[in-house]
Amino acid sequence: MAKPTTPRPSRARTKKAAPPVGADHNRPRPEAPADYKASREDLLEFYRQMVLIRRFEEKAGQLYGLGFIGGFCHLYIGQEAVAVGIQSALEPGKDSVITGYRDHGHMLAYGIDPKVIMAELTGREAGISRGKGGSMHMFSVDHKFYGGHGIVGAQVSLGAGLGFAHKYRGDGGVCVAYFGDGAANQGQVYESFNMAELWKLPIIFVIENNQYAMGTSVNRSSAEDQLYRRGESFRIPGLQVNGMDVLAVRGAAEEAIKWVKEGNGPILLEMKTYRYRGHSMSDPAKYRSREEVQEVREKSDPIEGTKKYLEAAGISEEELKKIDQEIRKIVSDAADFAESSPEPDLDELYTDVLVEQY
Ligand SMILES: Cc1ncc(C[n+]2csc(CCOP(=O)(O)OP(=O)(O)O)c2C)c(N)n1
Ligand SMILES: [Mg+2]
Fold first, then answer.
1. How do beta strands 203-209 and 238-242 pair?
2. Which of 28, 258, 273, 346 could form a cystine bridge with 243, CB 3.0-4.6 A?
3. C-alpha distance from residue 21 to each of 24, 25, 166 (Å)
4. Is residue 250 lining ligand 1, measured as CB closer than 6 Å?
5. CA-to-CA distance for 262 and 334, rounded, in angstroms?
6. Domain map of the chain by residue range?
């Protein structure tokens, strides 16, 4: 066989250092967010909401063990600062939210009645989805909370649709679409990124990087494990945030909202957080050690961290104990309400499953 006459150019001759990520297009970037300067009242409210989520989830875990909750159930314990910090920066009734199946904490942070959430978990008629959605499929259109989705990553595309609706209607709202580190490897996430940036949709993509998907760690499963960079090739800027610190989360949320409302298109927030419990209710947890979980609990717990801010603001131990007691009562009332509520009527099997008219 004849030798090729034109040799391929050697790599050495064409080699040129690639520009760093983000530096190749001359475009503005969001500012590095500062921690939110919380008032005494803000701090108390953050504490109250985070403790409510923690106690509610502990109770849900117990009710699951007792057989009151069927199907899947994913707890939000450890991640409280993310939902609470972001939600506190949104405009209720104007901005929309969508998330995956780890949704109870998000609904509580939205101010939705714990009773109707617990009733949904236990499959009761009084539940927010009339007892037919369960843990993973809760909705409240009144609160612009669009679920609760069991298909990993699907909420990101639906969120792009919500962002489109805000823009199309010109209602000035922003969509926050939450997803996990595992979901960040799903293909439809990137199709959504492309469209969202192309159409400059008002959407904040929030990756709740709790370090683990169902059975493996982010580092073991992700070629690029610095997830805030995942939007860069679509020109979506990303910020990495300490998701265990409610003031850092709120500060980043404000910066993101500003960016989006100025018409710059989407932004990505990577919230570095941690989940203390198993992925779902049955999880052998072979992917991490108990010591690791214990260390995070001791060193970075979002509620303990907020307590330190509260102490510095002069709030006494007694005041916090009072809040803790109030929350315990709210949660036990929610559980009593759920347990004593009737199950949906059999006829309900055929409602809300098919849209018959437009
Ligand atoms: C399309 C799809 N693939 C797989 C699953 C099974 N599954 C449920 S949760 C999960 C892991 C997701 O992890 P992550 O996105 O990190 O969210 P986290 O559970 O940590 O909140 C998987 C693989 C699913 N529900 N949907
Ligand atoms: Mg995860």
1. unpaired
2. 273
3. 7, 9, 30
4. no
5. 41
6. 34-338
C-alpha dist (Å) from residue 4 to 1, 7, 14, 114, 303: 9, 6, 20, 74, 69
With a 6 A CB cut-off, is 181 part of the ligand 1 pocket?
A: yes
Inter-residue long-range contacts of 15-21, CB under 8 Å, 24+ positions, other chains counted: 21/229, 21/232
Nearest to 101 by CA among 178, 160, 159, 186: 178
Q: Rounded to whole angstroms, how far apart are CA atoms 301 and 19?
A: 38
**With contact defined as beta carbons under 8 Å apart, do 21 and 229 qualify?**
yes
pLDDT tier for residue 66 given thresholds of 50, 70 and 90: very high
**Nearest bound ligand to CA 152?**
1
Count the residues in the chain: 358
What single-letter DSSP state applies at residue 101? S
pLDDT tens digits for range 232-255? 999 999 999 999 999 999 999 999
pLDDT (0 to 100) of residue 284: 86
Percent helix, strand and coil across the chain, each to the nearest 5:
45, 10, 45
DSSP characters over 287-334? TS-HHHHHHHHHHH-HHHHHHHHHHHTT--HHHHHHHHHHHHHHHHHH
pTM above 0.90, yes or no: yes
Ligand 1 touching residue 210 (CB < 6 A): yes
Q: Looking up tokens 């409510």, which residue turns up?
A: 52
Backbone angles phi, psi at 38, to 5 degrees: -90, 140
- List the 175-180 sheet strands across, edge first: 96-98, 175-180, 203-209, 267-272, 238-242
Query: Residue 77's closest CA among 98, 97, 102?
Result: 102
* pLDDT, position 1: 47
Return the CATH number of 34-338, one of 2.40.30.110, 3.40.50.970, 3.40.1160.10, 3.40.50.720. 3.40.50.970
Is beta strand 175-180 parallel, antiparallel or unpaired with respect to 267-272? unpaired
